[in-house]
Amino acid sequence: MRIEKDTVVSLQYYKLSNLQGEIVDESTSPVSYLHGGYGGMFPAVEAALQGKEAGYALSIAMEPEETFGEYDSELLRIEPRNAFPENVEIGMQFEGGEENSEDIMIYTVTDVTDDIVVVDGNHPLAGMALQFECTVMAVRAATADEVSHGHVHGPHGHDH
Ligand SMILES: [Zn+2]
C-alpha cells in the first residue's frame, strides 16, 4: 500500500541530527502518524513520503523554517530573580504566555545570577538545520474515527 492522504504510516525508527552529525532526537520505539497534513509529522517529511511504501528509507535535510522555526532573539527575556522560585536553575522550564496571544509558551532558563534570570522561549532546536532519517515499517488505511480525530489510534498511536 502506498502512502497517501488518510493512511496511517508507521516508522520503524526515526532520527533527527544536526549538521555536526549529533543526534538531537530519536525514537526508542516505532511511531505512527496520520498522513495528510494533520500536523503529526513535519510537512517536508510527509511530502517526501507521499506515494512511498513499507520498506522505504528516507533521509532528508530540513531548514529551520521546515522544523522548529528560526531563532527569535525577542523570545529571550531577562526577568527579575525574585519572580522565580528559590531553587531556580539553568535548564528548568516554565510556562508563560506571549502578550496578545493565547498560546502557551515554554521558557527554558538559560542563565541565573543573584539579580536576574534569563529565559528563552525558543524551541531548543530552533534555528538549526536538521537531517531527518526514518524507515517506513507499515502503511495502512486510516479508520473513519482516526480521520475525524486527526490522529492514530491503537498500537503506537493515541490511547483514549
Ligand atoms: Zn482519537
> How many separate helices?
2
Which architecture of the largest domain would the CATH scheme give at its second level?
Answer: Roll
What is the fold-level CATH name, i.e. the topology of the largest domain? Chitinase A, domain 3
The assembly state of the depicted protein chains is single chain
Bound small-molecule species: zinc ion
Q: Spans of 5+ residues with little confidence (pLDDT < 50)? A: none
Proportion of residues in extended strands: 35-45%
Count of all domains: 2
- In total, the number of strands is 9
Helical residue percent band: under 10%
Question: Nearest-angstrom radius of gyration?
Answer: 19 Å
Secondary-structure element order, as H and E? EEEHEEEEEEH
Distance between the ends: 27 Å
CATH class annotation of the largest domain: Alpha Beta
Mean pLDDT: 93
Shape: elongated
Which structural class should the secondary elements be placed in? Answer: mainly beta
What does the largest sheet look like? 5 strands, antiparallel
